[in-house]
Design brief:
The structure is a single chain. By secondary structure, the chain is of the alpha/beta class. It has 14 helices and 12 strands. The protein folds into 2 domains: 133 residues, Aspartate Aminotransferase, domain 1 (Alpha-Beta Complex), CATH 3.90.1150; 241 residues, Type I PLP-dependent aspartate aminotransferase-like (Major domain) (Aspartate Aminotransferase, domain 2). Helix content is 40%, strand content 13%. Strands 2-8-7-6-5-3-4 form a 7-stranded mixed beta sheet, with helices on both faces. A 3-stranded antiparallel beta sheet has the order 9-10-12. It has a two-stranded parallel ribbon with strand order 1-11. It binds pyridoxal-5'-phosphate.
Length: 386
């Protein structure tokens, strides 16, 4: 057991930055107004929302009017996919997505098949990269939407979004990307990426849970997600979550200050940790692209072991990591992402994801490497059981 716990599961969620919590607090008690109200309490809340909206917009090079606040990444993905589908179903009922999307994209697509939509799942290569030419080949005159994630939550592979957007633009097809995992880790510029819609979530960038953003480029056709009081330009009714919005705004402000240095620091830690594991443990496979990869993601299959066994050993020592995606760990079976890379069930079963964060130090990783080395050794001694 270590003398302190080490959290290596930042892709699942991050702690709220104390400055974020501090910024939010007055909006529960003092400045509690409804931003739609016409009096001073309402105006105060609205000013805070406007300022957070402007901050988020600036961070992704969008116009504030193109920012819609949602309840999180899952809602943003659902809104983009179902909203585009319902708005364009007379034009065509074909959607293209990748085989490694998060369930928040995959499952709404599956849901739409009940309404006569056809979904094409383009494959990925052995490193998890989508080939833009596969998207081009899959387009038909019925295609109304392409959705490909900016980076994958399990393996960290970053996709060629700008290349894909050149294709969707040429065909006049709406293009959505789930950028929940890249938010705060690599710069996001909606114009450089060329996307029409982009999903973000607060709790992956040291902000609160239950707040997200859907960027919607001006002119993109979407059916409203929630009907009611007409908030968010009538696209997403419901009284705004002012503390959450202030929180994501503050989290973005901090992320913007750190983005020049922190990703590079994490990339260096990541690479030296991977090298250490190759040297100390051996007989392992790094899953995902070696370079086109999120700065904080390490996903490794340790041959002749069991991921659950390793995770339990790490947990007992005070180190938190995950096997596959924590978002999809609700009994969904072996990772569809690792399966798409061509990994056997056996290799999928011995994979572990470790994701670094702002508080991760090289001493943490030194300690983690020791525990992993001992756990893998123990597992391999028991190998016939696996
Ligand atoms: N998309 C991706 C890629 C994610 O990793 C996650 C959460 O892990 C989500 C969507 C869902 O976001 P939220 O938890 O804010 O609903």
């Amino acid at each position: 057991m270590l003398d302190r716990k080490i959290y290596l599961d930042h892709a699942a969620t991050t702690p709220v930055n104390p400055l974020v919590a501090e910024a939010m607090l007055p909006y529960f008690t003092e400045h509690f107004g409804n931003p739609s109200s016409q009096h001073s309490f309402g105006r105060e809340a609205k000013a805070a929302v406007d300022s957070a909206r402007a901050r988020v917009a600036l961070f992704i090079n969008a116009d504030p009017e193109e920012i819609i606040f949602t309840s999180g990444g899952t809602e943003s993905d659902n809104f983009a996919i179902k909203g585009t589908a319902f708005a364009n179903m007379e034009k065509g009922r074909h959607i293209i997505t990748s085989s490694i999307e998060h369930h928040a994209v995959h499952d709404p697509c599956e849901f739409l098949t009940r309404f006569g939509f056809e979904i094409t799942y383009v494959p990925v290569d052995k490193d998890g990269v989508v080939d833009a030419s596969d998207i081009a080949k899959a387009i038909t005159d019925k295609t109304i939407l392409v959705s490909v994630m900016h980076a994958n939550n399990e393996i960290g592979t970053i996709q060629p979004i700008s290349e894909i957007s050149r294709i969707t633009k040429a065909h006049g097809i709406a293009f959505h990307t789930d950028a929940v995992q890249t938010f705060g880790h690599i710069p996001i510029d909606v114009n450089q990426l060329g996307v029409d819609m982009l999903s973000l979530s607060g709790h992956k960038i040291y902000g609160p849970k239950g707040i997200g953003v859907l960027y919607i480029r001006k002119g993109t056709k979407l059916t409203p997600f929630m009907h009611g009081g007409g908030q968010e330009r009538g696209l997403r009714s419901s009284t705004l979550n002012v503390p959450g919005i202030v929180g994501i705004g503050k989290a973005v402000e901090i992320a913007a200050e750190l983005i020049d240095k922190e990703p590079a620091r994490q990339t260096a830690l990541r690479d030296s940790f991977i090298k250490k594991l190759y040297d100390q443990v051996g007989d392992l496979k790094l899953n995902g692209h070696p370079v086109l990869r999120l700065p904080n993601n390490i996903n490794i299959s340790f041959n002749n072991t069991d991921g659950e066994f390793l995770m339990a050993n790490l947990d007992a020592a005070g180190i938190a990591c995950s096997t596959g995606s924590a978002c999809s760990s609700a009994g969904t079976g072996p990772s569809h992402v690792l399966h798409s890379l061509g990994l056997s069930e056996r290799m999928i079963g011995c994979s572990v994801r470790l994701t670094l964060g702002r508080s991760t130090t090289s001493a943490d990783l030194e300690a983690a490497a020791k525990v992993i080395t001992a756990s893998v050794k123990k597992a391999r001694e028991m190998a016939p059981r696996f």
